[in-house]
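Field: sequence (string)
Field: structure_tokens (string)

Example rows 1 and 2, in order.
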Amino acid sequence: MNIRKATLMKLFKALIVTITICGYDAAQATQSKAVVIGISQYTEINSLRYADSDAREFSQILIDLAGYEKSDVSLLLNQEATKKRIVDEINKVVRESQKHPLDSFILMFAGHGIESTLTAANTRKSGLVKETNIFLAPFDASIDENNFYSTGNGKEVSNETFINKAWLARQLSAIKAKSIFIILDSCYSGTKSFGSLFLENEGYSIQSFGVSGSNNGVASVEKRALTLLKSSADSKSTPEINSNGRRIAYLASSKEDQTSAEYDELQHGALSYCIFEYIKRVRREAKQNERVDISIEDLYENITTLFHKTKVNGVPLDSAHQPLLVPIPDFSDMKDMVMVSVTGTNNQFVAVQKIKSGSLTILTRETMLSDIEIYVDGLKRGESINTKIFLPEGRHSIEIYLPKTGYRNTFIADISETNPFTKKIELRGELYVASLWLIEGVKSEGPILDVLVDGKKVSNSPMHLDDLIAGSHRVEVNYKDVSKIREIEIRPDSPLRINYTIVKKAAESQEVQRVRNVVF
């Protein structure tokens, strides 16, 4: 099991978060928008294996299976998902929806983030707990201790390189849409601080969570009195109370004090796996070309069931964390909301003579990789790369998986009897390693570092490799008596650059310099 986490250097305890947000019905919507974000590669934070592929697969479901226009789905992966780009995309939806209200909006984020409180460590005030106003980590989030600072009365921690939770809650509430779906597949994704801010903007508060049966993990919310909101000091900036009948589903993969996990055995984060697995099952069981609506009630019920029944090494997923659902205005009022509408692929009801098939060929330059696995609609196939695979006509979800490195690539194949489908894929990517000196706040070209990849010495920094197999690798750098090790993710379409910053500081008793910290 890989925990989706980030580490704050010398200042705070380990922070763990991956966020994923899921969809709604586009078939019935006249205007729908989605912002889908997945980050496995980070400049300073440890990598995640499946966050970007989970986001990519979700966007494919929206566009290829649920009827979204490609232009209405903004997909940001890895180095594209900088803080500026994320902020710009969400602000764009806010502006456009103010002019032309949407039927539906969906936000999906898969990546690192942090919990609502941090505990100082290795400082004079070791053990001091502080609230934080930061939530999600974009690609360029920095965990350099110099980027963390106290705000207000000194009891809150901030970092401008992260996404601010109050800003996110405010912007989501400002989006004018009949339906909004937010799903967080992350550690601490059910955090009360973000949820409370979002609900407050909508004019609601959480009263309790169900603990059994179909209501297990479902929040009971209460509409707050309008007079209470107006008495707030910043009531002028409070969005209009949710009185227009719009409905909101906020799905989190874990409680606020729980970490969330991604599993090599599942090739997904836990919540993403359960969402995709249920959608694939619905498609397999529905008649070919039959359109099936998946409601929030159906989705959540099956997610919780899969969390309990799916086991890794004999342990069910819900032993580590349990999903939560916050419905607005009330679960009974919005449980029939259609999350996605998909087409069935089951042809057992079709007369044999009417079944048509076509071919799929997945081409790659790789000749040395013999363990590439191919999945069609969630089921493993026996065929190999560079050979024809015959499938029934229609759209199929295809997955390419490399067990050795955990790399996963997904796409939708539109199979036709008359038009063979060919997909070319690249399975290698680039890695850059550089070093920098940090002297009195000024950075310059750094010293030469010994660089090892997967335990083998490959070069000295600055280093560039352009043929690393996609997936997880272990990078180690050595300088004098300091060694730093981190896990990285290589992607064919996203070159990764790692900067190691060596802090140069004169020793107190002699005119020599030593390494104080290496930031990564």
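Row 2 begins here:
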Amino acid sequence: MVLPIVNRIDDYQSFVPNKHKMRDQLPSAVPESLKLAIRCFILTCAIRRLRGQVSDHNSMLIHVTRFVIWQNHIRDLVEKVFAHYKLGIDQNNALVLEELRQTFEEDVKGVGGNYKSYKTVSQEILNSPLSDIDNFLQIHEWSDVLKHLYDAVVKIEVRSINGGSADTLNYVDHPGGLSTIAIGGDKLSRGLTLEGLSISYYLRASTMYDTLMQMGRWFGYRPGYVDLCRLFTSRELNEWFCHIAHASEELREEFDYMADVAGSTPEQYALKVRSHPGVLQITASNKMKATVDVQVSWSGRLVESYELKRNEETIDNNLAVTKEFVGSLPPSYEKKSDNLVWKGIPASQVKGFLRNFQILENLKAYDPQNLIRFIDLQLPNDELTDWTIALMSKNNAQTDHHFELQNGEYKVGCFIRSQDENSSSEEIYYLKKSHIISPRHEFIDLSPEHYEKAERLTSELWGGREGTPSYLNGQVVRNQVRNPKNPLMLIYLLDPLGAKLPATCNPIVGYAISFPKSNFNSFVAYRIKEELLDRFDFDYEPSENYEDED
């Protein structure tokens, strides 16, 4: 589970445009999302006092520009907003206190996105597998928080932290705890530690992996207040950081594979980093002189459509495409549990399905059109020629969560896949943990002999670790068991309730493809050190961190 603390905002363009210049006209006011972030910081400081963290440091980061003149001007604007709240708390102003109460207790749609209150976030974490992350987490009442607002707000200072500023962040000089709203740019992002960082308002649109990762050191371990942290950022930046997180996770998995399976050492290992299909760069060009681009195919990969459009037109189109595709399949099929499995389907039919399927434009790695190009390049090699198609059906779906295809010939149980907690988008259905399949689904078409072989290879891979693997290893199946001619496509009908859509909506169609290992052609770009090119290992196993099993 991802902590539900990200707030995607979209009301900042008139405040700090993405490509503003130093001499552009300075903003005259702060957006509502920044006012909300300031209220959140006041509340976090108060709640930490309520939890006994009276002398701890508290920091809020505002990082929206690299220009000092802008930073100092924004400090003045923020000081005015903060002074308004501070005075209102001091004078028990009913309107100010009501604003703070609403921020604490009420969820709001439209604050540059969707805002979850302090009560909601704390409750969600306590009800999740992360409930034991911190023993200090608890649900508070507004009446208790109210008592600590004044003592919290009088300690807060607004500071501009940059090379030309007299302000500093010397936490050592404040044994009773320093509470500060720090406004800055490069100086804040590169090396300076913000003690007790809880609220970040971040809009710095760098397109470099390394710069973003340096700037994005927001929240590590936060004992006693992890549920009080908030990040306010744009949807684009949030998606970029998600991409970088996937790239980092991929590297960690490569290290694990290197150590556990290949028995290699770091000296023998060729470092590779997944490149972004759009505008992100790994680092500046002058730092990449000793690197080269390499292309990695979908060979041995599991492809899943984990981001789907939520609009009715796309949902209806994809369902119609699916109906037409299923209707074109032979009348004979194998039934496994409630799932329907067809074998020997020619690639031309699969390409027809993919060609008309609509998915997010930015998902280049899983774009149906890119998959078609990859299939076309493999066919002359006599690979990906005979497909297995599995129409998946949830075997314990409730009666009202079934959907009929081909005039009732196929009755399919719809799967419920939860929307990711961090998604506030009205247009996109982000699947929780980026998975549409359950772990055992990928092996639905294996013969008993192939299944037995996969079990043996998985056990060998498991090595001397305690216990036994709970299911087959996907990389083993794709790379060592599947015939290169026979990929597997799984088609899912997703219950609209999982996407928080009305029950009257049609099911949302998604798919997954298990590609067998191949040695031909590539589409995914990576950057590696040139001298390590001959030792480059293309194998990659995505994280099998599934939401549930069906």
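free_text_note (row 2): Residues 206-212, 268-289, 531-549 have pLDDT under 50 and may be disordered.
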